[in-house]
Amino acid sequence: MHHRTMKMLTSLMCTALMVLATPAWAQLSQDDAAAAAQRATGGRVLSVERAESGGRPAWRVKVVTAGGEVRFVLIDQATGQPR
Question: Which of 18, 25, 41, 77 is the most exposed place for a label (fewest CB within 10 A)?
Protein backbone atom coordinates (compact mmCIF):
# COMPACT_ATOMS: atom_id res chain seq x y z
CA MET A 1 0.00 0.00 0.00
CA HIS A 2 1.27 3.46 -0.86
CA HIS A 3 2.56 5.56 2.07
CA ARG A 4 0.15 8.44 1.33
CA THR A 5 -2.84 6.07 1.25
CA MET A 6 -1.76 4.45 4.51
CA LYS A 7 -1.36 7.85 6.15
CA MET A 8 -4.84 8.90 5.00
CA LEU A 9 -6.40 5.66 6.27
CA THR A 10 -4.70 6.09 9.63
CA SER A 11 -5.98 9.66 9.87
CA LEU A 12 -9.53 8.57 9.01
CA MET A 13 -9.42 5.76 11.58
CA CYS A 14 -8.23 8.15 14.31
CA THR A 15 -11.02 10.59 13.47
CA ALA A 16 -13.60 7.79 13.54
CA LEU A 17 -12.33 6.60 16.92
CA MET A 18 -12.54 10.11 18.35
CA VAL A 19 -16.15 10.42 17.19
CA LEU A 20 -17.11 6.99 18.50
CA ALA A 21 -15.31 7.55 21.81
CA THR A 22 -17.22 10.78 22.50
CA PRO A 23 -19.34 10.20 25.62
CA ALA A 24 -23.12 10.22 25.28
CA TRP A 25 -23.35 13.20 27.64
CA ALA A 26 -21.04 15.33 25.51
CA GLN A 27 -24.01 17.33 24.24
CA LEU A 28 -26.25 17.72 27.26
CA SER A 29 -29.88 18.32 26.29
CA GLN A 30 -31.82 21.40 27.26
CA ASP A 31 -34.02 19.32 29.60
CA ASP A 32 -30.98 17.77 31.29
CA ALA A 33 -29.49 21.24 31.79
CA ALA A 34 -32.73 22.42 33.40
CA ALA A 35 -32.70 19.42 35.74
CA ALA A 36 -29.04 20.05 36.67
CA ALA A 37 -29.75 23.71 37.46
CA GLN A 38 -32.78 22.75 39.51
CA ARG A 39 -30.70 20.28 41.54
CA ALA A 40 -27.94 22.87 42.02
CA THR A 41 -30.25 25.64 43.23
CA GLY A 42 -33.37 23.92 44.55
CA GLY A 43 -35.28 26.49 42.50
CA ARG A 44 -37.85 26.44 39.73
CA VAL A 45 -36.62 26.73 36.15
CA LEU A 46 -37.98 29.71 34.23
CA SER A 47 -36.04 29.42 30.96
CA VAL A 48 -33.11 27.71 29.26
CA GLU A 49 -31.08 29.07 26.37
CA ARG A 50 -27.84 28.30 24.58
CA ALA A 51 -24.79 30.20 25.77
CA GLU A 52 -21.02 30.09 25.80
CA SER A 53 -18.65 30.33 28.72
CA GLY A 54 -14.89 30.40 28.40
CA GLY A 55 -15.21 29.50 24.72
CA ARG A 56 -17.15 26.34 25.54
CA PRO A 57 -20.82 25.61 24.86
CA ALA A 58 -23.12 25.90 27.85
CA TRP A 59 -26.76 26.30 28.79
CA ARG A 60 -27.86 29.49 30.55
CA VAL A 61 -30.65 28.51 32.92
CA LYS A 62 -32.82 31.12 34.63
CA VAL A 63 -34.25 29.90 37.95
CA VAL A 64 -36.23 31.40 40.80
CA THR A 65 -35.16 30.13 44.22
CA ALA A 66 -37.50 29.20 47.07
CA GLY A 67 -36.71 32.63 48.55
CA GLY A 68 -37.91 34.38 45.39
CA GLU A 69 -34.43 35.29 44.08
CA VAL A 70 -33.96 35.07 40.31
CA ARG A 71 -30.59 33.52 39.40
CA PHE A 72 -28.81 32.46 36.25
CA VAL A 73 -26.84 29.21 36.25
CA LEU A 74 -24.46 28.18 33.47
CA ILE A 75 -24.45 24.43 32.85
CA ASP A 76 -21.52 23.05 30.87
CA GLN A 77 -22.83 21.11 27.85
CA ALA A 78 -19.94 18.64 27.96
CA THR A 79 -19.96 17.82 31.66
CA GLY A 80 -23.43 18.73 32.86
CA GLN A 81 -21.85 20.58 35.78
CA PRO A 82 -22.75 24.12 36.89
CA ARG A 83 -20.07 26.74 36.31
Answer: 18
Grouping H, G, I as helix, E, B as strand and the rest as coil, residue 36 is helix
pTM across the whole model = 0.68
- What is the topology classification, in CATH, of domain 25-83? Nuclear Transport Factor 2; Chain: A, (3.10.450)
Cα(62)–Cα(71) distance, rounded to whole angstroms?
6
Gap between the Cα atoms of 83 and 41, Å rounded = 12
**Residues ≥6 apart with Cβ < 8 Å to 74:** 51, 53, 58, 59, 60, 61, 82, 83
| Per-position pLDDT tens, the chain of length 83 | 566 665 665 655 544 444 444 444 458 999 999 999 999 999 999 999 999 999 999 999 999 999 999 999 999 999 999 98
